[in-house]
């Protein structure tokens, strides 16, 4: 939900274990276009209004699964900067505690009833590359003992120019919003049960991260999440941001001992990486 900018603007970057910046990208040299050449219009962006088109709810509480709209079949959006991007264009990361201010922003995504205490969670700021070609600052909450590992994964993805649409904290507003089936937020901790189960999800422990979920949907039977992402169940697609077996995303998470939901047999969760195998 892009309406969260006002809340996030009040957040400050936490001091913590700060990564050594990546070397600045080398400048490129381009020829001077002739005066008769048409101006470059720049990249084409999707015209779809995100978070606006609510879906009817089904008996299981999700939205009705609908075909992917044409405007989202090749998905490309600008990233809204909720935190200041790095001025030098390099990779930076900080690891810090979940402060009272961060806890307030998390809202109902965590409560004292959750299986992990705040003291065992960490708040991360991470540089990522957007689908707009820009460099942005994202945020995740994960288990504190996995924080450095997760930083190393996103450092690898940044170096590989793997694009991420957005990376912000889920909040109460996300939990209470009507389903629109078009979200694509890369996120970590959300205190909830596993899909279709009563046991806690790995996300409830801060031991899972979902990466570009619209391009890498969850699928079991007739259920697809996000609900408008069914076109991306075609894994022969090779658009940037789609995760494939053995690619840089899978290798980076495998290196830290996490497993990929895209390799499961009973269901497919192409967005999902976890330290628990579930």
Task: Note the topology.
Elements: H1 5-8, H2 70-73, E1 93-97, H3 100-106, E2 121-129, E3 135-143, H4 147-159, H5 172-176, E4 208-210, E5 218-220, E6 223-225, H6 248-255, E7 259-260, E8 268-269, E9 272-274
Antiparallel strand pairs: 1-2, 2-3, 4-9, 5-6, 5-8, 7-9
Helix pairs in contact: 4-6
Structure description:
- This protein is an alpha+beta fold.
- It has one domain (11-18, 61-274).
- It contains 6 helices and 9 strands, in the order ααβαββααβββαβββ.
- Strands 1-2-3 form a 3-stranded antiparallel β-sheet, with helices on one face. A 3-stranded antiparallel β-sheet has the order 4-9-7, covered by helices on one side. A 3-stranded antiparallel β-sheet has the order 6-5-8, with no helix packed on it.
- A hairpin with a 5-residue loop joins strand 2 and strand 3.
- Helix 4 packs antiparallel against helix 6.
- The longest helix has 13 residues, at 147-159.
- The protein is globular, with a radius of gyration of 19 Å.
- The two termini are 26 Å apart.
- Residues 1-18 and 26-35 have low confidence and may be disordered.
């Amino acid at each position: 939900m892009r309406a969260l900018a006002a809340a996030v603007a009040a957040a400050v970057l936490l001091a913590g274990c700060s990564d050594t910046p990546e070397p600045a990208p080398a400048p490129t040299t381009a020829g001077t276009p002739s005066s008769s050449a048409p101006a470059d219009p720049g990249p084409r962006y999707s015209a779809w209004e995100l978070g606006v088109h609510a879906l009817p709810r089904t008996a299981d509480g999700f939205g009705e699964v609908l075909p992917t709209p044409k405007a989202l079949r090749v998905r490309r959006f600008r990233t809204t900067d909720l935190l200041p991007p790095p001025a030098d264009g390099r990779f930076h990361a900080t690891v810090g505690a979940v402060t009272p201010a961060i806890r307030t922003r998390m809202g109902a995504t965590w409560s004292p009833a959750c299986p992990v205490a705040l003291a065992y969670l960490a708040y991360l700021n991470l540089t990522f590359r957007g689908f707009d070609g820009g460099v942005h600052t994202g945020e995740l909450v994960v288990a504190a003992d996995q924080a450095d590992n997760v930083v190393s994964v996103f450092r690898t993805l940044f170096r590989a120019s793997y694009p991420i649409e957005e990376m912000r904290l889920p909040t109460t507003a996300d939990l209470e919003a009507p389903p629109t089936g078009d979200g694509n937020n890369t996120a970590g901790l959300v205190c909830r049960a596993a899909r279709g189960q009563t046991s806690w999800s790995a996300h409830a422990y801060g031991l899972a991260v979902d990466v570009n979920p619209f391009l890498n949907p969850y699928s079991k039977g007739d259920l697809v999440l996000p609900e408008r992402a069914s076109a991306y169940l075609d894994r022969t697609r090779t658009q940037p941001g789609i995760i494939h077996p053995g690619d840089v995303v899978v290798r980076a998470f495998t290196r830290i001992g996490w497993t990929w939901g895209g390799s499961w047999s009973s269901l497919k969760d192409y967005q999902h990486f976890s330290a628990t195998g579930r």
